[in-house]
Design a protein that fits this description.
- It is a single chain.
- With about 140 residues, the chain is an alpha+beta fold.
- It has a single domain, classed as OB fold (Dihydrolipoamide Acetyltransferase, E2P) (Beta Barrel).
- It is globular and about 40 Å long.
- It has five helices and twelve strands.
- The longest helix is centred in the C-terminal third of the chain and has 14 residues.
- The strands form three sheets. The chain has a seven-stranded antiparallel sheet with strand order 7-10-11-5-4-3-12. Strands 6-8-9 form a three-stranded antiparallel sheet. The chain has a two-stranded antiparallel sheet with strand order 1-2.
Length: about 140
C-alpha cells in the first residue's frame, strides 16, 4: 500500500481521484465502493452516514448516499453505475469506521454494476492511482503527515 502525504492509497482499488471515491471489483462481479483516506482526512470526524437503500439505481457521478462530519455534509459520489445490493450496516451504525478504516470496515455500499468495463476505464488503479494522488495532493497542497 502506497503512503502519500500521510494518506494510504491501496493499489488494488480503482479511484476517481477528484471525487475521492474508490471501487473494488469483487470475485462475484459486484463492486464495493467507499471514500478514500484523503476524503476522510478532509472531512475529519464522520458522525453520520446515510447510504441510499438496497435496490436503488445509482449513476456514475451521482450520490450513493451522504456523509456528515462536524463541519461538513456531502455526497459519496459513485465511481460506477449500478444497483445497490448491500449497504454497510456496521459502518452506518458506527460511521467513525470510515475514518479509521476507509478501505476495509468503512466501505459504503456494494453495487451490481451496469457496465463495469466502461465505467472502470475512466478510473485509475495501481501505479497510475499513486501518481494521480501524488499530483492531486501536491496541486491542492494537502498534507496529513
Amino acid at each position: 500500500m502506497a503512503q502519500i502525504r500521510g494518506c494510504n492509497i491501496p493499489e488494488d482499488r480503482f479511484y476517481w481521484v477528484e471525487k475521492h471515491a474508490w471501487a473494488r471489483l469483487e470475485a462475484d462481479g459486484t463492486v464495493t465502493i467507499g471514500i478514500t483516506d484523503v476524503a476522510q482526512h478532509l472531512a475529519k470526524g464522520i458522525v453520520n452516514a446515510t447510504p441510499k437503500e438496497v435496490g436503488r439505481a445509482v449513476q456514475k457521478g451521482k450520490s450513493a448516499g451522504t456523509l456528515e462530519s462536524g463541519k461538513w455534509v456531502g455526497p459519496v459520489t459513485s465511481p460506477v453505475s449500478g444497483e445497490i445490493i448491500a449497504i454497510n450496516e456496521t459502518m452506518k451504525a458506527k460511521p467513525s469506521l470510515i475514518n479509521s478504516d476507509p478501505y476495509g470496515e468503512g466501505w459504503f455500499v456494494r453495487l451490481k454494476p451496469t457496465d463495469w468495463a466502461s465505467d472502470s476505464a475512466s478510473l485509475v488503479t495501481g501505479d497510475a492511482a499513486v501518481a494521480a494522488y501524488q499530483k492531486f495532493m501536491g496541486e491542492q497542497n494537502l498534507n496529513f503527515e
